[in-house]
Amino acid sequence: MSYVQTQRIPGSVVFKGNIAAIGDVPSSPAEGDVYHLTGDVTISGTPFATGNEILWTGSAWELIGKDGFTIKALTADGTLTAYDQVVTASGASAAVAVTLPAVSGVLGHQYQIKATDITNAVTIAPNGSDTIDGATGSYTFATAGDSLTITATAAGWIIQ
Fold first, then answer.
1. How many angstroms separate the CA atoms of 69 and 86, rounded?
2. Rounded to whole angstroms, how far apart are CA atoms 114 and 83?
3. CB hemisphere CA count around 148 (13 angstroms)
4. How far out from the chain centre does Cα 92 lie?
5. Angstrom distance (rounded) from CA 106 to CA 100
6. Among residues 60, 79, 83, which one has the least CA distance to residue 71?
7. Which residue of 1, 106, 116, 136 is surrounded by the most CB atoms within 10 Å?
8. What is the three-class DSSP state of 63?
């Protein structure tokens, strides 16, 4: 039995291979294509180091780090994407709202979010009418260093 891919799931990633030199970078990648770097490469003026993975977002190459993920560090309001996984948020200088994407576009996706400083409020805000643990409104971290894992389900966002 063989399977044929008819369409990509939005936000999915596909490992496509290795890149050792600039000549190995594909000219027409698909959104979500991931490559492992076996050599240092500079693409459109951005240097990427050996041993990392890069992702084509549909408009640019983005470093997703070693072992397939990066830590997104927020010190101001920010909206997460389907490509984010681990997030730190610091309210040291100002309040930070971490806005989740619409559940419908990232079903099954998990984010690990940590509040590193809550001098000013650090909140997690659902998108539109989505809910967090069945409630409307935002979730606010109570203690610096607290973290949570939140998952997109058909019933809304669930904190685990």
1. 8
2. 17
3. 19
4. 22
5. 10
6. 83
7. 106
8. strand
* 98 alpha-carbon distance from chain centroid: 12
How far apart CA 37 and CA 22 sit, in angstroms, is 10
Intra-chain end-to-end CA distance of the chain, in Å: 38
pLDDT of 5 higher than 50: no
Indicate the SS3 state at residue 110: strand
Model-level pTM?
0.62
Q: Give DSSP secondary structure letters for 53-95.
A: EEEE-SSSEEEEEGGG--EEEESS-EE--TT--EEEEE-SSS-
- Structure-token pair, residue 109: 């996706």
Asked if residues 126 and 140 have their Cβ atoms less than 8 Å apart, the reply is no
Residue 3, pLDDT score: 47
pLDDT tens for each residue of 69-86: 567 889 999 999 877 888
The pLDDT of residue 119: 97
Q: Which residues contact 78 (CB under 8 A, 6 or more apart)?
A: 72, 96, 97, 98, 99
- Residues 33 and 18: beta-carbon distance below 8 Å: no
